[in-house]
Amino acid sequence: MAQGTKPIFGGPLTSVIIPAAGSGTRLGLDQPKAFVDLGGSTILERCVDGVLDADINAEVVVVVPADLVEHAAALVPSAVVVPGGAHRSESVRAGIAVSGNTDIVLVHDAARPFTPPRVFRAVVDAVLAGHRAVVPGLPVADTLKRVDASGRVLDTVDREPLRAIQTPQGFTRDALIAAHADDSGLATDDAGLAERIGIDVHVVAGDPLAFKITTPWDLRIARDLVQEVAR
Ligand code: CTP
Ligand code: MG
């Protein structure tokens, strides 16, 4: 297990990798997204608190921009903090590299600080039940259409079998390592890498509160929510 973590006895130890090394281009602020204030704490601090609140017996590994490692370590002293890479998947691999030899590894975007404890537990439980890769997903509410480059609608997609996928995504350690050994840079999530090498990915119920803060609109919602959600 990595130095600085605080194991709780009584269950299998899980590693939670939190990629937080992105720049937050779409948010458009002058600091990386994970370090943006959300009602008096950073998004990163709220995210780590959320993992600890989930009570899943986890060591937490946080991956941040190289010049912010010390700053982040002071913000989240219960976590191991390491520098990330240019792409999300590289940051995830940096986290995997320093994580302990746990059987279960969760990968959870820093940008989803309101993710309820129930979602973490559902993902861990599904991995424990035998699924090698597990993702939270939500039904899609909007009508979906495929559109060509000129803006012409090609067709309307049946949304019934579609799910919008969130994090935490959970894996057996061997599955996650195998998935990341074959990264050609196109998958937007870790489960996508697993799918490409033939690993079955299982969906559990996600939660609207696990939404990702991506745009200024999302941050506005988050700042309203932080007044309401007890933490
Ligand atoms: N991430 C990371 N390393 C990267 C890129 C992204 O650790 N090189 C992390 C982000 O910090 C975030 C998560 O992956 O917690 C999801 O990525 P996203 O929401 O796209 O965040 P950013 O890449 O920071 O935002 P943008 O794409 O708008 O620049
Ligand atoms: Mg990004």
Poorly predicted runs are 1-11
Number of helices: 7
Helix content: 25-40%
Write down the secondary-structure element order.
EEEHEHEHEHEEEEEHHEH
Total DSSP E strands: 12
Number of domains: 1
Distance N terminus to C terminus?
27 Å
Averaging pLDDT over every residue, what do you get? Answer: 93
Q: Please identify the top-level CATH class.
A: Alpha Beta
CATH superfamily: Spore Coat Polysaccharide Biosynthesis Protein SpsA, Chain A
Structural class: alpha/beta
Shape type: globular
Bound molecules: cytidine-5'-triphosphate, magnesium ion
The CATH topology label is Spore Coat Polysaccharide Biosynthesis Protein SpsA, Chain A
CATH architecture name: Alpha-Beta Complex
Give a quick precis of the structure:
By secondary structure, the protein is α/β, with parallel strands linked by helices.
Describe the fold and architecture.
Helices cover 30% and strands 23% of the residues. It is built from seven helices and twelve strands. The strands form three sheets. Strands 1, 4, 5, 6, 7, 10, 11 and 12 form an eight-stranded mixed sheet that branches. It has a two-stranded antiparallel ribbon with strand order 2-3. α5 crosses α6 (190-196). The longest helix is centred in the last third of the chain and has 13 residues, at 216-228. The protein is globular. The relative contact order is 0.17. The model is unreliable at 1-11 (pLDDT under 50). The structure holds cytidine-5'-triphosphate and magnesium ion (MG). Residues 19-26, 33-34, 63, 84-88, 91, 109-111, 212, 214 line the site of cytidine-5'-triphosphate (CTP).
